[in-house]
Amino acid sequence: MIVDVVVSARNEAPTVGTVVEACLGCSYARQVIVVDDGSTDGTADLAAAAGAKVVHREPPDAGSKAHAMEAGVAATDADAILFVDADCLYLTSAHLDEICLPFIDRRAAMSIGTFDYGFWNWLVLHSPPTTGERIIPRWVFEAIPPEKLDGFTIEYIINGVIAEHRLPVTARVMRGVTHRTKRDKFGRLEGTIETVRMFWDVISVPLRGLVRFRAYWYYLRALTIEG
Ligand SMILES: Nc1nc2c(ncn2[C@@H]2O[C@H](COP(=O)(O)OP(=O)(O)OP(=O)(O)O)[C@@H](O)[C@H]2O)c(=O)[nH]1
Ligand SMILES: [Mg+2]
Fold first, then answer.
1. Mean pLDDT, residues 8-14
2. Is the CB of 182 under 6 A from ligand 1?
3. Of residues 51 and 207, which shows the higher confidence score?
4. Rounded to 5 degrees, what are φ and ψ at 195?
5. 100 C-alpha to ligand 1 centroid (Å)
6. Which pLDDT score is estimated for 107?
7. Is the pTM of this model over 0.85?
8. Is residue 12 within 6 Å of ligand 1 at its C-beta?
9. Which residues have C-beta within 8 Å of that of residue 112, sequence separation ≥ 6?
10. pLDDT over 90 for what percent of the chain?
11. Which of 26, 41, 75, 122 has its C-alpha lying 20 to 30 A from 57's C-alpha?
């Protein structure tokens, strides 16, 4: 089974290099593909310098995480894709190995890692996962209809495909891992506005009929928490 890593990145210069290094060190990864959307801070060069293959998307196509992921999947023939966000902090190859193992052992069709929220981890592990760190078979991504490929709701759409097929999922906390939040990136005001906008997009997924409410029940029944 060939696994490639796809990292969507837009203006993630402070973190993209160390994230690519962690991905390259993952025991199960063949190559690391960074999909850059016209970053203006050198993200693409830093990713390439760290050893990633870089896929460039330029305006008018640029500007959607979902479409960046699609471009990354299109750039590889791998059987499975490990998606990783470029803004992770303290992410190591060991974290990624732990995510991949249940998938490689065929105990899970989707295996995810969540950020370490300390006391709140139990809640996060039982919530519909929004995390970008996940391994899935290629066909799951390709099963998503084009009209559902949209920005930050993509993680929920993937959850929906997995749940509707009643596929087994494993979830674990990536101990010590966090990320640069939108407030770190854009400042307090713009960051808060962007965060509220993103949460609304995500929360409205079932309301807009993109994923059925009952998919969450299927998801919980198929979920095993590890670690
Ligand atoms: N190529 C590309 N990557 C993107 C785009 N939007 C977001 N990303 C990347 O997708 C990953 C996750 O995006 P974030 O903006 O951090 O979203 P998030 O982590 O869900 O939200 P926060 O909690 O606010 O950080 C990061 O690596 C981003 O750089 C885009 O339009 N194009
Ligand atoms: Mg982030």
1. 97
2. yes
3. 51
4. -65, -45
5. 22
6. 97
7. yes
8. yes
9. 99, 129, 131, 133, 134, 169, 170, 171, 172
10. 81
11. 26
Distance CA 206, CA 211 (A): 5
Average pLDDT of span 38-66 = 92
Question: Rounded to whole angstroms, how far apart are CA atoms 140 and 73?
Answer: 11
pLDDT band at residue 111, thresholds of 50, 70 and 90? very high
Instruction: Print the SS3 string covering 66-78.
Output: HHHHHHHHHCCCC
- Atom from ligand 1 closest to the CA of residue 85: 27
Q: Give 36 Cα–ligand 2 centroid separation in angstroms.
A: 15
3-state secondary structure of 196: helix
Atom of ligand 1 nearest to the CA of 71: 1
Query: What average pLDDT does the chain have?
Result: 94
Taking the C-alpha atoms of residue 157 and residue 219, their distance in angstroms, rounded to an integer, is: 12
**Class of residue 146 by CB neighbours under 10 A (exposed 0-12, middle 13-18, buried 19+):** exposed
Query: pLDDT tier at 198 (50, 70, 90 boundaries)?
Result: confident
pLDDT at 200 over 90: no
Q: For residue 35, what are its two tokens?
A: 């999909």
Residue 57 CA, closest ligand 1 atom number:
1
Residues with CB under 5 A from ligand 2 (ion): 87, 179
Which CATH architecture does the domain made up of 3-225 adopt?
Alpha-Beta Complex (3.90)
C-beta of residue 32 within 8 angstroms of C-beta of residue 7: yes
Question: How far, in Å, is the centroid of ligand 2 from the Cα of 69?
Answer: 15
